[in-house]
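Is this the right way to post structure tokens for a design question? Let me know if I should format differently. Anyway, here goes:
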């Protein structure tokens, strides 16, 4: 498997793949593909990676800046992340996420947040922190990974692209 940054020719596949991955997900807004396009249009897809197997895109992950109330800078949000349904649970998601987190570290990011299944994201070091909140989402579903010694406190806001419909 190869992992590389997205290029302009990938956008149609990323849209189809994201739509297919979230199609049957209970908690999905079904807007994930539109969110990626809004982030791209706004120029805030800081890290957007595709995984390639046998010459085909099999997965995608996006990271974009988030704001933390107070002074925290250099924080990012993980997601959406999508693997084609028939390629899931083969380690592709983990490889994409690990690669993306490494790239954020190399960009001197301070840390990353994610909204999602705690059991999945804890394997990368994400953990919930009662001092770092996201709206009224139950704390266990909102997790953070601190790259530096400083854990920020406050309310997190994703980019306006996440309001895309
Ligand atoms: C979630 C997703 C990105 C994971 O990628 P993947 O390549 O399928 O998963 P991986 O092979 O990297 O990891 C498999 C492991 O994750 C676990 N896992 C996968 N999806 C999970 C979920 N939603 N909740 C909890 N654990 C999950 C599997 O049980 C497996 O655990 P194990 O290693 O202990 O056996 C992928 O399944 C997907 O695209 N799902 C639909 C879209 C989605 O839910 N995106 C994330 C929204 S937060």
């Amino acid at each position: 498997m190869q992992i590389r940054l997205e290029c302009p020719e990938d956008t149609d596949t990323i849209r189809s793949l994201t739509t297919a991955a979230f199609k049957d997900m209970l908690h999905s807004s079904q807007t994930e593909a539109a969110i990626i396009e809004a982030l791209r249009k706004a120029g805030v897809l800081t890290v957007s990676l595709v995984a390639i197997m046998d010459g085909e895109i099999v997965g995608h992950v996006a990271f974009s800046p988030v704001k933390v109330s107070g002074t925290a800078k250099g924080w990012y949000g993980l997601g959406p992340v999508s693997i084609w349904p028939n390629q899931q649970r083969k380690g592709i998601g983990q490889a994409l996420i690990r690669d993306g987190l490494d790239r954020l570290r190399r960009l001197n990011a301070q840390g990353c947040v994610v909204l999602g299944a705690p059991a999945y994201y804890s394997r990368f070091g994400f953990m919930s922190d009662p001092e770092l909140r996201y709206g009224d989402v139950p704390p266990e579903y909102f997790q953070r990974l601190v790259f530096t010694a400083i854990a920020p406190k406050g309310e997190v806001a994703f980019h306006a692209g996440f309001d895309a419909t």
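Format looks fine. Someone answered above. Worth noting: The helical segments are 11-22, 32-41, 92-106, 118-121. Residues 21-22, 25, 79, 81-83, 88-94, 116-117, 119-120 surround coenzyme A (CB under 6 Å).
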